[in-house]
Amino acid sequence: MNHPDPKLRGEAIALTKEAAKVAELLGCDEVVVWSAYDGYDYPFQVDYDEKWAQVIEAFRECCDEFPDIKFSIEYKPTDENTRFFTVPSTGAALLLVHEIDRRNMGLTLDVGHMLMSGENPGQSIAMAGKKLFGIQLNDGYTRLAAEDGMMFGSVHPCMALEVMYQLKRIGFAGHFYFDTFPQRTDPVKEAEYNIERVKKFWMAVHCMDEKQLRQITDEHDALGAIKLVDEALRIL
Prior knowledge:
The chain has helices at residues 6-25, 48-65, 90-100, 111-116, 121-128, 157-169, 187-206, 210-219, 222-233; strands spanning 30-33, 39-40, 70-73, 84-85, 105-110, 132-137, 175-178.
């Protein structure tokens, strides 16, 4: 959608619309867009305002032509394809959605991408609220510019717990995706483990004392928060 050639830019938009047509045929109501090449590699390489406007125009066109399909952008801060993405963070993605200004435009957040951006995934989910259409669950070691695709909750169980809590709090009704990389494990067993972990984290969230949590947040009680997490994670 950011290609300098208008013809190729139009083809990218047409491809997104084709995905929406296929979604309708399959009885789906959602199209997730990860713009792997929408960005740049060097300072002064692109006109930032122009690239931002192009993405807005492209999604408005798709949203207007398919009002019953929910379009969501999956942002990523950096990648081997694009060093600086046009939409590099949750905050930028929310600004984009606000400026597109269509009810069927939202976000799909990826835990690994949020960690890469230096974000706390729980806070990002809270910010997205009802504009969160999908969530990709995974984990990572947060090494610079690395997307590890580890199993959900395997590296940051505390953050994974808060991810599930915030999803519960905002009344999330979208899809759970698992974007993990089973390069040295059985992919079926890895998928089964991810599902099992999500269910356990979900149970742990429902066992948390809401009154106690409210007191902790009111008082900014760090030790209280850690102890609450320790207690909740025992169910795992």
